């Protein structure tokens, strides 16, 4: 069986869950597409380019079915939620579709059934709540206070009444919103390097951002149970994972639907106590939910990475107002100041959308000034994608593609300069790095990351000198000295193995 996962880490976790279910049901997974008799493509549908990549991949896999090397083609993920009927009509090679809320139906789609008792070859051993409570006393009682059924935030219920999640115009879409959440007993087949893993702590989103269709695709915000996340983290660490990255559409809302106060901070505090967990981080913070308690928690634990990813989307208050996100450059600068004061040395990542309908040259200047002042460590600029089904689709003032692309290029160039200058200050610093493996570009270099680099998305640290060590091992931590800095990447030499 062959599996292709497209899109973001949140989609990757869905893929890992589906692969875990298939593996437990007896499927043999292969990385060689020519050897697979069943092919699964887990798609992304966030923006136009992601949709195109999804369609291209499905068509490419369909050729394997036409040629007879594959017997079945299954399409899963966000594209299914959006174009369920159309996929089946336009691509007859597709045998089954699996939406984001139906991950378990991958088994039926593949013609497999789950064995009555869990097989012993689980991808990793999951502790039960009772076992987890033995390691961390108090969990059992906290578990008992949580509802086992899914609950929602009042904001989510209100937005549903206002029509935020509607799919009425989506031909073939099921009208029931996805409610699925995996838990600690769901098998997962990890695809990330042995030392690192993602944990999805929540699914869905209640925010009203007018450019975004994710809430329509993924449903209302819902958190996984606290003790379920802790149990999963303990199991991962028990099998050698040393870096955990918590993800969700908005991790800073974690626990609100469960009645938890400071849910994310409390969760981080609990997870940081797991012995042998070296790096813990979370991605995708919502700007107005960065509380003092959250920052105190990041500062308090050595193993919580000093890293904050907060997608701001824009800095001009008028654009942010039309995006239905609110705030603006002044408020964001105050937040950034507060973050840097509470957690000195923290690395900040953000992303912006340029070319939103009605965005003026002045709005771009506001954004440019903001970028100059905020000096982010990592920054992504995305072109606005006009998504049918989003509230922004009805807005007037669409900008020509070339204007959008030129604004994007301009801002990326600006950030390149800022990054180049700031990376120079890293030279001479001695840092703990996680070695990931030989560089794809040349076997003479190794690739690594510091706590200030999240997996897959930020720049790299290239190792060109292993010091006194004969060789490096992927997934091991070392002390290294930064010797060179480029626009985004760093070069380092190994000083010693990290304890
Ligand atoms: S916070 Fe906004 S941009 Fe992010 S998933 Fe939710 S609606 Fe989309």
Characterization of this structure:
Helix 10 packs parallel to helix 11 (292-300) and helix 14 packs parallel to helix 15. The chain has helices at 9-24, 48-66, 78-90, 106-110, 129-135, 139-144, 154-161, 214-218, 226-238, 263-271, 292-300, 317-322, 329-342, 361-374, 401-424, and strands at residues 2-5, 38-43, 72-77, 96-98, 196-200, 202-203, 222-223, 243-247, 279-282, 307-309, 347-354, 378-383, 430-438, 446-449, 461-465, 477-485, 490-497. The strands form five sheets. Strands 13-14-15-17-16 form a five-stranded mixed barrel. The chain is 34% helix and 18% strand. Helix 10 links the parallel strand 8 (243-247) and strand 9. The two termini are 40 Å apart. The site of iron/sulfur cluster has 8 residues, from helix 8.
List keywords for this structure.
alpha/beta, single chain, binds iron/sulfur cluster, four-stranded parallel sheet, five-stranded mixed β-barrel, 499 residues, 15 helices
Detail the topology: elements first, then pairings.
Layout: E1 2-5, H1 9-24, E2 38-43, H2 48-66, E3 72-77, H3 78-90, E4 96-98, H4 106-110, H5 129-135, H6 139-144, H7 154-161, E5 196-200, E6 202-203, H8 214-218, E7 222-223, H9 226-238, E8 243-247, H10 263-271, E9 279-282, H11 292-300, E10 307-309, H12 317-322, H13 329-342, E11 347-354, H14 361-374, E12 378-383, H15 401-424, E13 430-438, E14 446-449, E15 461-465, E16 477-485, E17 490-497
Parallel strand pairs: 1-2, 2-3, 3-4, 5-8, 8-9, 10-11, 11-12, 15-17
Antiparallel strand pairs: 6-7, 13-14, 13-16, 14-15, 16-17
Helix pairs in contact: 10-11, 14-15
This protein binds iron/sulfur cluster.
Iron/sulfur cluster (SF4) is lined by residues 205, 207, 209, 212, 214-215, 249-250.
């Amino acid at each position: 069986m062959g599996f292709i996962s497209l899109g973001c880490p949140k989609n990757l976790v869905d893929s890992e869950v589906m692969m875990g279910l298939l593996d437990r049901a007896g499927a043999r997974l292969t990385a060689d597409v020519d050897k697979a008799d069943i092919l699964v493509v887990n798609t992304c549908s966030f923006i136009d380019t992601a949709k195109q990549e999804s369609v291209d991949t499905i068509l490419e896999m369909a050729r394997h079915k036409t040629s007879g090397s594959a017997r079945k083609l299954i399409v899963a993920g966000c594209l299914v939620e959006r174009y369920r009927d159309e996929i089946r009509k336009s691509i007859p090679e597709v045998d089954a579709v699996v939406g984001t809320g139906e991950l378990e139906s991958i088994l039926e789609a593949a013609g497999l059934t789950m064995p009555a008792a869990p097989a012993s070859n689980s991808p990793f051993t999951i502790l039960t709540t009772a076992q987890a409570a033995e390691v961390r006393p108090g969990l059992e009682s906290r578990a008992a206070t949580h509802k086992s059924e899914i609950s929602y935030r009042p904001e989510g219920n209100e937005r549903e009444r206002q029509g935020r999640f509607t799919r009425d115009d989506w031909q073939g879409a099921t009208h029931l919103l996805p409610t699925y959440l995996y838990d600690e007993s769901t098998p997962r087949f990890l695809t990330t390097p042995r030392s690192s893993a993602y944990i999805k702590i929540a699914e869905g989103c209640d925010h009203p951002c007018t450019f975004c269709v994710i809430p329509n695709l993924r449903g209302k915000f819902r958190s996984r149970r606290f003790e379920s996340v802790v149990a999963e983290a303990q199991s991962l660490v028990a099998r050698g994972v040393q870096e955990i990255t918590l993800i969700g559409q908005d991790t800073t809302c974690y626990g609100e639907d469960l009645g938890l106060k400071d849910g994310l901070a409390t969760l981080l505090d609990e997870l940081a106590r797991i012995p042998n967990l070296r790096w813990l981080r979370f991605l995708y913070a919502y700007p107005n939910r960065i509380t003092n308690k959250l920052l105190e928690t990041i500062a308090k634990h050595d193993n919580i990475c000093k890293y904050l990813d907060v997608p701001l989307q824009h800095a001009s208050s008028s654009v942010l107002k039309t995006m239905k996100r609110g705030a603006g450059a002044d408020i964001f600068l105050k937040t950034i100041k507060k973050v840097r004061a509470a957690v000195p040395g923290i690395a900040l990542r953000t992303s912006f959308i340029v070319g939103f309908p009605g965005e003026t040259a002045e709005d771009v200047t506001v954004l440019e000034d903001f970028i100059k002042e905020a000096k982010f460590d990592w920054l992504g600029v995305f072109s606005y994608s006009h998504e049918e089904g989003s509230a922004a689709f009805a807005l007037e003032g669409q900008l020509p593609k070339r204007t959008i692309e030129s604004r994007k290029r301009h801002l990326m160039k600006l950030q390149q300069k800022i990054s180049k200058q700031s990376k120079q200050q890293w030279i001479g610093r001695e840092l703990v790095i996680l070695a990931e493996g030989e560089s794809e570009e040349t076997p003479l270099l190794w690739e690594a990351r510091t706590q200030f680099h999240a997996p897959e998305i930020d720049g790299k640290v290239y190792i060109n000198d292993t010091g006194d060590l004969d060789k490096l091992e992927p997934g091991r931590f070392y002390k290294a000295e930064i010797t060179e800095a480029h626009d985004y990447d760093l070069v380092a030499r190994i000083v010693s193995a990290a304890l």
